[in-house]
Every structure is written in structure tokens, then in C-alpha cells.
Design a protein that fits this description.
Strand content: 25-35%
CATH topology of the largest domain: FAD/NAD(P)-binding domain
Shape: globular
Structural class: alpha/beta
Largest sheet: 7 strands, mixed
Helix content: 25-40%
Strand order of the largest sheet: 5-4-3-2-1-6-19
Bound molecules: nicotinamide-adenine-dinucleotide
Length: 474
């Protein structure tokens, strides 16, 4: 293999969706790339995050189908959940993807070094691991990811029943009861999966609502659906103490001055993630940080020219697709380009039953920014495909600019919402108008028709719901 030669050498630190994408893009552009990763290629997303969670949710979906079949004339019994086989299936999916990343890096002639990279001075890294050496490079892309936050709750750190999302995805014995601390994306997704597989789950969320980053109206509808599935949700509620008993944890929660004790076999702590640069010593590299986050401009360049940071270690929004997008941008800029990261219509998704996804502005954000808008809603109960898929649970909601009619936000609570949202992403990123989306004929019967219908509703002309004509008689 060609060794990095003077002038073409580029080092990427971290092999997750930010780092490996940056490495491939830089190699495509002619760089001699070295990628340094201390654990497994694929990072959090592939190994202990997005991918195993979705594999788990697929198993949970199958368990739900077994229960739901009877109402549709298909009578099945769910004999048992063989947890070890569920874990095997997850591991199989993860291995396929990690092997794929490894093969892609090889094909792109990226040198992969297993080890920890630490700055000893700007643009100079000490590598400790399978090789111990010092490397200098004019161009470095940092993609060191994030780690779970552990809140300072007495007894939490010491408890042998408390786990983070990584622990939940590999727990040896499937719990009968679980308390989930934090009603964000991780909390909700894992609560759904464990509940569907037979665990009794309680979510404890400090704020007065679940999923604070998503559109409030649809997040509220999802929360009501989770409760119908049997998940107990305690809002405006803080965990104040955790104590271990012989068979499980006792979690003391406090709400409006009153304390309650919840017992659980396992406690999942999912109160957020923090940027991670443990072992990297960014300060020795001369890099500026703020609350742990490596500071960059919108070209992903840090305060040191030629050094870039992407993904969770640099970001406020911690999403795999953001990391990959920034990775491509950093690689292009490191190779002389002028690419800029535009976060405006990055989609976010919650893989629950049903899924919730959004792009652009939420109603709350549009109000905060005093942007005049009109709203269109379309209930999925009026969409044939949704009625068949999940009894019509869900809604599409769009925000359209009052003056110009541009699409400002699209929010979807529906089966496969995380796929459907791509239409909103494309429309908003192409600065589409409501009329553009209306003019596009949507296939029938599809869930995507509901997106067009919501836009029709925003324009006061839905076909499959009835809106009182403006100024009409009541
Ligand atoms: P989060 O920030 O999404 O949610 C954490 C929640 O915990 C918040 O609602 C917060 O109010 C609550 N909380 C904080 N302290 C608490 C306490 N002491 N008691 C009770 N509640 C408390 O964090 P997360 O769910 O851990 O996810 C971490 C990151 O990973 C996020 O950036 C998320 O976007 C990302 N992620 C994304 C996906 C996806 O895109 N599908 C999936 C998983 C994780």
C-alpha cells in the first residue's frame, strides 16, 4: 500500500460515521489517509447506538405483530422472547456493517491504525496502541464522538443495576421491570423496544414533556400512544436517589415536592451525551473548546488552520448523519475546497411505535423567531395505507411561510416516518414552496400522500379532510 507521502498526508482521528466518511472522501480527493481508531470501526452508531437499537426495535416490532395479528384474522402466539438470540441478531447486523466499513477503507487505501491518538503539540499526534509512534500532518480531521452523561444523582454511579444505552443493548438477563431516566430520543426508543419485548417500563423525565427537541404537538401524541402501549410516563419528575436492594434498584423520584419510590430490575440512564475527547488532549494541540465541544467554523475548521472537527465532538446536534455530512465537508475543505455546513433542514427521527420525524422549524421554533406561518395537519386515520399499517395512528403537520408560501417545517408521526421525512428534507433544502409539493403527484395508496394532504390543508384545500371554508357559515 502507498504510504502517506509529504504533502498528501491526512490523519483522521476516530472511525465513526464522522471519521470514516471523512477518510473515504479525502482519499477520493487524492489524500494519503491514515485513520486512527482505538476501539471498533463504525463508532457509537454502528456498534452500540443507532444500528443495534434499530435491530432491537425490529425484534420488538415482530413481537408486536404477533400480538396484533389476531385483530386481523391472523392468530399467532408469542411463545417466548429468546433474548440471547435477539442479541445474536443484533451482533450479526453490526458485524456486517463494521466489516463493510473496514472493506471500504481498504479499497480506498486508507491506512487504519488501532490505537489512541493524543496531541503532543499542534498538528503532532502521539499514537499508542498496536503501533507506538509520533505522526505529524498538516491536515487532521478529528471525529472522536461523544459519551453518555452521568448525572450527579446520589447512588446512581455506584448502583450495579444502572446501565447506559450500551449496557441496555447487551444486558445479559432481560429485565422484567425497568426505569428509564430521561425521556429523550434514547430513552423513548429503548423504552418502546423493551416494553414491546415484555418488560414493564417507566420513563422519568425532568421536563414537562417528552422529546423536547421535537415538535411538541406530535411528541405529545406519541407520548399518549406510548402510554396506551403500557409505558408509564412521569413528567416534571426528577430522580433524586438510587439505592441497591438484593434483587434490583430502588429509584426515588420527586415531583412537585412529593417523593415516590420505584422498584426496578434495571435502570437505564439516558439523560444526554457529552462531547468526548478523552485521551486526545486537544489543548496540547492548541485547540479551543467550549463545554467540551471542539470549536469550529461552518467549514468545520478549528482555530488551528488545517485541523478540522466533525460530529459529536464538535457538535451541539449529536446525530450520525450530521457527523457524516460534516465529515465530507471537512475532507473537501482539507483538500482545498470551500464547502459549508448548512444545518437548516437536517432531519431528526425517533424510532418508536409509530416513528416520529421532523425537519426544518418546529412550531415552537417558528413562534420563538417570530416567523409568520400557517399550519396544515393531516390525520393518518384518513390515509388508507396508514389505516392498514397501524390503524391510522399518527399525523403529518407542516408549517408554511405566511407571506411566500415556502415550506418551513415538516413533522411526521407515522409508520416509517424516518423514511418519509426525506421528502420534507428535499423540499426544504431546495427552497420549495407549498405549491411545488402540491403539484407533485404522489402515488396511491402510500403514506406519502399524507404529506401532500397536510400541505393542501395548510393552503386551505385538503381533499381527504374537511376544513370549514374561510369566512363560510358555521
Ligand atoms: P436527549 O438530550 O435527547 O434527552 C435527554 C432527556 O433527559 C431530556 O429530555 C432531559 O430533559 C432529560 N433529563 C436530563 N436530566 C434528567 C434527570 N436528572 N432526570 C430526568 N430526566 C432528565 O439525550 P439522549 O436521549 O440521551 O440522547 C443523546 C444523544 O444521542 C442526543 O443528541 C440524541 O439526538 C442522540 N440520539 C439520536 C437518535 C436518533 O436520531 N434516532 C437515537 C439515539 C440518540
Amino acid at each position: 500500500m502507498d504510504r502517506p507521502s509529504e504533502g498528501r498526508g491526512l490523519i483522521v482521528v476516530g472511525g465513526g460515521p464522522g471519521g470514516y466518511v471523512a477518510a473515504i472522501r479525502a482519499a477520493q480527493l487524492g489524500a494519503a489517509v491514515t485513520l486512527i481508531e482505538r476501539e471498533r470501526l463504525g463508532g457509537t452508531c454502528l456498534n452500540v447506538g443507532c444500528i443495534p437499537t434499530k435491530a432491537l426495535l425490529r425484534c420488538a416490532g415482530l413481537a408486536r405483530s404477533a400480538r396484533e395479528g389476531a385483530g386481523r384474522g391472523i392468530h399467532m402466539t408469542l411463545d417466548r422472547v429468546a433474548w440471547e438470540e435477539v442479541l445474536d441478531y443484533q451482533r450479526w447486523v453490526v458485524k456486517r456493517l463494521v466489516d463493510g466499513v473496514s472493506a471500504l477503507l481498504k479499497k480506498n487505501q486508507v491506512e487504519v491504525i488501532r490505537g489512541t491518538a493524543s496531541f503532543i503539540k499542534p498538528k503532532t499526534l502521539k499514537i499508542t496502541g498496536e503501533k507506538n509512534e509520533i505522526r505529524e500532518a498538516d491536515r487532521i480531521i478529528l471525529a472522536t464522538g461523544s459519551a453518555p452523561v452521568v448525572p450527579p444523582v446520589p447512588g446512581l454511579k455506584e448502583s450495579r443495576y444502572v446501565m447506559d444505552s450500551t449496557g441496555a443493548l447487551s444486558v445479559q438477563r432481560f429485565p422484567e421491570t425497568m426505569v428509564v431516566i430521561g425521556g429523550g430520543v434514547i430513552g423513548v426508543e429503548l423504552a418502546c423496544a423493551f416494553q414491546a419485548l415484555g418488560c414493564h417500563v417507566t420513563i422519568v423525565e425532568a421536563l414537562p414533556r417528552l422529546l423536547p427537541s421535537m415538535d411538541g404537538e406530535l411528541a405529545g401524541m406519541l407520548a399518549a400512544g406510548l402510554e396506551r402501549q403500557g409505558i408509564k410516563i412521569l413528567l416534571g419528575c426528577r430522580v433524586v436517589r438510587v439505592a441497591d436492594g438484593p434483587e434490583g434498584a430502588r429509584v426515588t423520584v420527586e415531583r412537585a415536592g412529593t417523593e415516590e419510590v420505584l422498584s426496578a430490575d434495571k435502570v437505564l440512564c439516558a439523560v444526554g451525551r457529552r462531547p468526548c475527547s478523552e485521551g486526545l488532549d486537544p489543548e496540547a494541540g492548541g485547540l479551543l473548546r467550549e463545554r467540551g465541544r471542539i470549536l469550529t467554523d461552518n467549514r468545520q475548521q478549528t482555530n488551528i488552520p488545517g485541523v478540522y472537527a466533525v460530529g459529536d465532538c464538535a457538535g451541539e446536534i449529536m446525530l450520525a448523519h450530521t457527523a457524516s455530512a460534516q465529515g465530507e465537508i471537512a475532507a473537501e475543505n482539507a483538500m482545498g475546497g470551500q464547502a459549508v455546513y448548512h444545518p437548516a433542514c437536517v432531519p431528526s427521527g425517533v424510532y418508536a411505535f409509530p416513528e416520529l420525524a421532523g425537519t426544518g422549524l418546529t412550531e415552537e421554533q417558528a413562534k420563538e423567531r417570530n416567523i409568520p406561518f400557517r399550519v396544515g395537519r393531516f390525520p393518518l386515520s384518513a390515509n388508507g395505507r396508514a389505516l392498514i399499517a397501524n390503524g391510522g395512528e399518527g399525523m403529518v403537520k407542516v408549517l408554511v411561510g405566511e407571506e411566500l408560501g415556502e415550506l418551513l417545517g415538516v413533522h411526521i408521526l407515522a409508520p416509517n416516518a424516518t423514511e418519509l421525512i426525506a421528502e420534507g428534507v428535499s423540499a426544504i433544502s431546495m427552497e420549495g414552496l407549498a405549491d411545488d409539493l402540491i403539484a407533485a403527484v404522489h402515488g396511491h395508496p402510500t403514506l406519502s400522500e399524507a404529506v401532500r394532504e397536510a400541505v393542501l390543508a395548510a393552503e386551505g384545500r385538503p381533499i381527504h379532510t374537511f376544513l370549514k371554508p374561510k369566512g363560510g357559515k358555521s
